[in-house]
Amino acid sequence: MAAARGLYAKGVVKRAEILETALQVVAEEGYSGATVKQIADAVGLSQTGMLHYFGSKDALFREILRRRDEINYASFGDPDHPPAEPINHFVDLIRHNAMVPGLVQLYSRLSNESAEPAHPSHDYFQERYELSRQIGRTVLERLQADDRIPPDLDPAQLAVLLAALSDGLQTQWMYDQSLDMAAHIEYFLRLIGLQPEASPPPAESKGRSGDGRRRSRAPRR
Amino acid sequence: MAAARGLYAKGVVKRAEILETALQVVAEEGYSGATVKQIADAVGLSQTGMLHYFGSKDALFREILRRRDEINYASFGDPDHPPAEPINHFVDLIRHNAMVPGLVQLYSRLSNESAEPAHPSHDYFQERYELSRQIGRTVLERLQADDRIPPDLDPAQLAVLLAALSDGLQTQWMYDQSLDMAAHIEYFLRLIGLQPEASPPPAESKGRSGDGRRRSRAPRR
DNA sequence: GTCTATATTGAGATAGAC
DNA sequence: GTCTATCTCAATATAGAC
Predict the structure, then answer these.
(1) CA B37 to CA B46: how far, in whole Å?
(2) Is the pLDDT confidence value at B175 over 90?
């Protein structure tokens, strides 16, 4: 009945170990280096030996991306315990992406290849998109409650736009790494009138002066 | 020396014929149906017979997308002779995309798969992105000159955002066809304060009344 | 649990006849 | 110019030994 847990302790550890290595291989070697064989070699297992832990190539790569999300959430904000300034963390995450071209490529390709309903990773990505939009919406509602973006904006629609921008900027960036993804997201945030976080609670009611809300435009690019 | 032109008249016609058929196959059968064999069957040629006109699968698919752009430009605005209202044509094009899922998928996949510098279609997409941004920038500058978007916006940055939105919305749409891509683009355009086209030139200075520029928010979704 | 070795599949490229 | 038939190649899945 161990199948109920699905994995023995040792398997769990090994699995995790494989994912860490795979993540590194992809990040370093790029998407082309991301073949089952390459990863198996890096882990020091045979192809079959490694696939045993995941079942198939698709499942393995799906898990790589899942693991990456986990790491990103940990570094850039856990959805259950959102950081103090989630919108900055989002921008940081975008900025971080520019350091790991291989992972960006892996994500872009898989998310597009899995679009067909019959694809084994279809449901994973579908849910992931729903989740991103939901997180985005929550964060934006929070900003709205804090009076940092105008009350007439629709957080749900903005969340869709942010998710689209994130994906679309990555594609353009892959063709031109001089494009500054984070700067473009920041430009968008300024467009919607995002106000900087008010310094904690200093005596003076600072940062919310009577200048309405439209601020200076983006400087870059 | 016929190689200078590269093609005989008959070849040119056949080529065009193949592309039209291929376009239909992809649009109808989806990306999965877009195998060399499937297209060759639909055209009534053998795989080799057909590939003879293009050289390779990559080149064929690249040409399919190129031909599609041609058709879209013709229907939705030629870049050399921009239509009276290019921004509406852009939105129309997005709306039109929702009618041809197979082509959207083909485009999304190829544009992501070709991101590696070594890929045969890399240059094609790289140039296509540059061109889209350039067209976008020109259109936005025009809107700015006509006082239909605020003067402090940066057309170049907005062009990048529009291209990213277009791509990113398509990806999300593939996972949820109830997402209205055109409506989201329109929402973005309202966000940046786009004013409706002034009715040609009626005596009354209408449509540019003193309401500043921020208009009502998007209604949908 | 892990390996080696093999099978299978699928696509695309090529050669040479008609 | 076009077809038939064949080849190569890569990649993943599977069978069965240790």
Answers:
(1) 8
(2) yes
**B108: chain A residues, CB-CB within 8 Å:** 112, 115
Q: How confident is the model at residue B204 (pLDDT cuts 50, 70, 90)?
A: low
Token couple for A68:
């990456």
Helix B155-175 × helix A181-191 angle, to 10°: 100
Q: Which nucleotide is nearest to B58 (CA to C1')?
A: C12
Question: How many CB pairs below 8 A link A and B?
Answer: 133
CA distance B174 to B111: 15
Nucleotides of D under 7 A from a protein CB: 1-5, 10-16
Please list every residue in chain A whose beta carbon sits closer than 8 Å to the beta carbon of residue B184: 157, 160-161, 164
CATH class as words, domain A10-191: mainly alpha
Per-residue pLDDT at B7: 56
Tokens of B103: 């082509």
N-to-C CA span, chain B: 60
Cβ separation of B184 and A157 shorter than 8 Å?
A: yes
Three-state SS letters, B4-71: HCCCCHHHHHHHHHHHHHHHHHHHHHCHHHCCHHHHHHHHCCCHHHHHCCCCCHHHHHHHHHHHHHHH
- pLDDT at res. A204: 52
A40-99 residues near strand C (Cβ < 7 Å): 44-50, 52-53
Choose the closest CB to A191 out of B125, B179, B192.
Answer: B192
Tell me how far apart the alpha carbons of residues A117 and A114 are, in angstroms, rounded to a whole number.
8
Which residues of A are less than 8 Å from B112 in CB distance?
Answer: 105, 108-109, 112, 171, 174
Greater confidence (B6 vs B99) lies with B99
The mean pLDDT of chain B is: 85
Contacts of A80 (CB under 8 A, 6+ apart): none
Q: Which residues of chain A have pLDDT under 70?
A: 1-9, 76-84, 200-221
- Residue B192: its pLDDT value, please? 98
